[in-house]
Amino acid sequence: MSATLATPSPGGSGRLTLRLLMLGAVLLLAVLPALNRLPADSALHVSDFIVSVSGKWITYAILALAIDLAWGYAGILSLGHGAFFALGGYAIGMHLMRLIGPRGVYGHPTLPDFMVFLGYKELPWYWLGFDHFPFAILMAMAVPGLLAAVVGYLAFRSRITGVYFSIITQAMTYALMLAFFRNDMGFGGNNGFTDFKELLGMPLNTPTARSALFYASLALLVLSYAICSRITQSKLGRVLVAIRDAESRVRFLGYDVTQHKLFVFVLSAVLAGLAGALYVPQVGIINPGEFSPGNSIEAVIWVAVGGRGTLVGALLGAFSVNALKTWLTTVAPDLWLFALGGLFVAVTLFLPRGLIGLVSKVTK
Amino acid sequence: MTSFILRMAFLLLLALPARAQEDYAATLPGLAGGFGEIAGAVERLGALGDPRALPVLQALQDGRLLKTADGHVLLPQGAGFVDAATGQPAEAAGAEAVRLNNRVRQALRGALGRLQLVSPDAAQRGAAAEAIFRSRSAEDVPPLQAAIAREQDAGVRAKLELALAAAQLVAADPAAKRDAIARLGAAGTVEARALLIEARAGNPGEAGAIEAAIARIDQSLAIRRAAETLFQGLSLGSVLLLAALGLAVTFGVMGVINMAHGEFVMLGAYATFAVQELCRGIPWLAPWSLPLSVPAAFLVTAACGALLERGLIRHLYGRPLETLLMTFGVGMIIQQAVRLAFGAQNREVISPAWMQGTITLPGGVAVTQNRLWIIVFGLLVLALVFAAIRLTRFGLEMRAVVQNRRIAATMGIRTGRVDAMTFAFGSGLAGMAGVALSQIDNVSPNLGTGYIIDSFMVVVFGGVGSLAGTLVGALTLGVVNKMLEPYAGAVLAKVFVLVAIMLFIQRRPKGLFALKGRAAES
Predict the structure, then answer these.
(1) What is the value of ipTM here, to two decimals?
(2) In a domain, B210, yes or no
(3) Nearest-CA distance from A17 to chain B in Å?
(4) Chain A positions in Cβ-Cβ contact with residue B502 (cut-off 8 Å)
(5) pTM of this prediction?
(6) Is the pLDDT confidence value at B9 over 60?
(7) Owning domain of residue B75
(8) Phi, psi at residue B73, to the nearest 5°?
């Protein structure tokens, strides 16, 4: 199928430089919330906005890592990763809704406001257990993982590959979006969940909660990166790359391609779900718009811009494209969609290996 | 209006026997009496069927009818009054309004209904039939039968028939009752069914006949509903067919995923809007703007398609995933450009008069004309695509390139040119789909987004590269969607269909109509 993309593995000094750069970036990120606590007139003070935006971007970077693992290494282009991200978000959102308790507008002791409004008499069965934080986190991983397992099993088993798989996953997130827009699904319909009060005893929207969520996201990012880089450097990673480049050949060599692909796809969905679970408390809202096919494909372009097939590229892409988005949507909102569309075209035509490819070309 | 009715009434009067004319004049003074006399006079006026009584009774109902001390009845006309008996101008000084009580009002309703039956205005006659249906009584039977014999308008006649059956059901004659029940059963409408259910309680003697008639209606209603669902499904299916045909060419024949296909559909709809605006100033051209926009939309989107293929897609052949992402970006740019150029709000494309309205097929199945036209249009476009692929030189070269690009090139076919033309052709089909969609959906920048995923599903379900598969796939998905809708709602029906397709391609990964090949991967 696609032209073989050599996975860049900068050797020796290159790898060391890369590691040092990344360590520096992580440290820089890690001090952000501390700098936020400095008095506002201090030269090193960092605004609330920067902290919350970078917290959000970190969760996007985890999503990008997840997509890169599936697409960049195993050649599985999912256009439905936004759905896994949103499902994780909905899982934590349900927990946050349960924590509001009687503080809602209608003051009902157990039912969230939208349920009172829609005339629910009791909590639907699938809401049970979400008052416990560990259960919600478990669900934020289990639901996306299970969905990925079912869709992936059905698709990989019948050897649905390439663009067909992309279209199927796009239809999946589209169907979920339509379903979540319905009021009688019991997930808040059009409006989704919002007006969260607290998480783990911390009132949200305070500096403490903000930095706690920030550090949690950063920790998950480092952990995800470690997992992904461990996988890609192992024999499993080699097999994945082989599947990407010549699926039939790997199959004929005796590897179980379906199982390999399924493993990486489910792992990727779980990571995306966790990223979503950290995203929602930071932005304070989750609604069915998160399932829109455009969101998923936008996340794919982060990876493409950064450079697929390299984990650093996914991170670089997520941060740079979102930085561009944040800047451009404030400066010239009308231009953002042109810029994003232009990125799609430019990257696929001129930068097949993304910014990382550009960097390695320049350094050579 | 009043004077027009009066003039018509006097014309009709010439046909009435002299005695009836005298009766009319003799009855009028009753309206100047007490409530009992008024009610009696109203009923007699209604029974006489003299058209002159209609404006009088309408004025009475509105409280504008005056009575003088010496028993004359005055009717308002223009700024002054006329004597209701003679039609001569009269002095209203000292006259007072005729008052109503409930008994008079009830009498008025029936009498007005009967008088309106002889009105020259079809809408009035229809309203009269409905009024009689509500206030039904045995006395209504003879005037209704007379009215049905005269009636030319099919819609009014149906209402009259229903009112007659209702009146006969409350009358004493058992033979007429059974006849009415049988006719209601044959009519097979929802109204007839409701009437029968109402009559069931009052007519224990006819219970068997009534039950049989209701069962008959239920059956014909079920058939009609099924036929209407089928029609709606076919019409949705032909919309999908139109949207998917272009994809079947670009995706099926060329293997190029064009995520901007939906935007081409949207461009076609905007081209339709633009042609409509251009034709607006030319009166003789304006009704034909829609047929004109078909070639216009085709040319616009085909040109865009050729540009996209030559400028961008050409460089990505053999890299389908990149093509997908790139065309998605192009779609975004087109959408945003249209949003900035035309505004984000919906644009209205007006259906020409010959496409508006509904047709009632035999058996009472109502079909909207514009949906019918879309089905016809979809089939025409399919025939066009079939002819283009099978019968033209271009189609022959296209098939040759699909089968074996390198050998086609050695045979002298300019494959690059064929690629561009194939892509332009597929994009032009999207534009034609846009013309059809402008008739049933809002023309807005994100018009295409709603259809693109469904069209991909059609192509995947029907089998890539097969026109027959696209046709069967589109119609099946349309009909299944509409069949599920009453049970699951529009949104869940869509979700079910998507899930069903995912399961279906488990059994047949290449779709319904798979192309046979020998490659291990294709």
Answers:
(1) 0.84
(2) no
(3) 30
(4) 151, 154-155, 168, 171-172
(5) 0.75
(6) no
(7) 2-166
(8) -115, 125
